[in-house]
Each structure stands twice: as structure tokens, then as C-alpha cells.
Amino acid sequence: MPEANRVTPFGEIVAIDQRGLFLGNRGSIHRGRSVVRPWQVRRWITCALTYKDHVAPRWEPGRWTALFFWDEAVALAAGHRPCAYCRRADFVRWMDSWESATGARPRVDPLDRVLHAERTAPDRIHRVPWSEVPGGAFVVIGGRPALVATDRLVPWRPRADGYGEAVARPSAGTVDVLTPPSMVAVLRHGYDPVVHPSAGTVR
Q: For the chain, percent helix, then strand, then coil, each to nearest 5?
């Protein structure tokens, strides 16, 4: 049976047969082998599955709760940024794009406050013209998440193979975007997320 530590593009923590490419952290949010709250800290990060000799804790009391993402596009949609420690190069690239988008390069604490306000807002899904949605973002179509590529949409599914069959991307109108606004801005200004091979290239 899969454990309840997989994260969907909506940011929900669920038990699905899908471990993925990345590890995540929201602090200690479990009791026993059950997740009992959505977060403990504002610093939601996306980590490498392996880094040097570090070993992720497995439901250890008082330790941070190991979460898993199918790929980085899912993690960004859920509101997780790259870890500045185990993914230093990706974090620097991400910050470069943040600076390009905003004109500022803040420390991580004020940055994480902005991200936390966006991902926990009651109206976190925001409507955007299709022409402004970058590759690597997630949208909501018929209540379900889909990854945006330059020329197509790739539905995400809570299954072991992750993504479904691609469909054409609309060229006009607006769409509900799941990826938080600041993350969308980072994607629009050059950050290229790691996407699972089953989705193909998104840029």
C-alpha cells in the first residue's frame, strides 16, 4: 500500500501509487504514520531524492515529514521552491528568475512569506489569459490539473504513470491557473523546471 506522503498539484498530501522525482519538506506534520496537518513551517522546499550521505527520515517522531512529488512542475504548483542546500544550482537559477520578474532579490524569509500567502489563499486558483501561461505551469481543466507545454496540455493523474495523453493547448481566452502567481512569474522569466519524462518537453 502506498503511504500518505505524496503531494498533488493542488498541494494535497495523499496516498497514491506515485513516488516521483523529488522529495519535499513542510516541517514535522505527522503523528505516527499519518499526516495530521498541512504544514508546520512557511519554508516549503523541494529537495533531491539523494544528496551526499543524507537520509530522509521515515515517520520519525519530531523529525520533518518526507513528502514526494512526481516532478518539479508538480512541486511548483503545490507552492514548493527549490532547496538552497541540496539543490543549490537550481535555487540560484530560480532566484535569478525571481529577480528578473520582480526586480528584487530578497532573503528567503520574506520570499517564503510571499509564497506562503499565495499558496494558502482561499482563492489561490487565479484566472489568466492563455497567452500569459508559461510552460511548466499547471492549469485546472474540468476540475483536474494539467501541465502546460508550449503547444499542448498534459493531464496529471494520481496513478503510477503520472501523466495522461496530451491534448491541444488553446490559443485564446482565459484559464484557471493552479501554480501560484509568483511561481508563474518565475517560470515566465526563464526558470525551466525538471519535468517527468512521461510529459515530454514543456518549453
A: 25, 25, 55
Res 1 pLDDT > 80: no
Give the length of the chain.
203
pLDDT in tens, 41-61: 999 999 999 999 888 999 999
Domain ranges for the chain, please list them.
6-98, 123-199
- Between CA 119 and CA 124 the distance in angstroms is 6
Residues 6+ apart with CB under 8 A from 155: 141, 144, 145, 146, 147, 163, 164, 165, 166, 167
Conformation bin of residue 10: beta by default, left when phi > 0, alpha when psi is -120 to 50? alpha
- Given its phi and psi angles, is residue 16 left (phi above 0), alpha (psi -120 to 50 degrees) or beta? beta
Mean pLDDT estimate for the chain: 95
Q: State how far the Cα of 103 lies from the Cα of 96, in Å rounded to an integer.
A: 10
**Coil, strand or helix: which one is 148?**
strand
Q: Name every residue whose Cβ is closer than 8 Å to that of residue 91 and which is 6 or more positions away in sequence.
A: 81, 82, 83, 84
Domain 123-199 has CATH 2.30.30: yes
152-192: pLDDT as tens digits: 999 999 988 899 999 999 989 999 999 999 999 999 999 99
Question: What pLDDT was estimated at residue 133?
Answer: 97
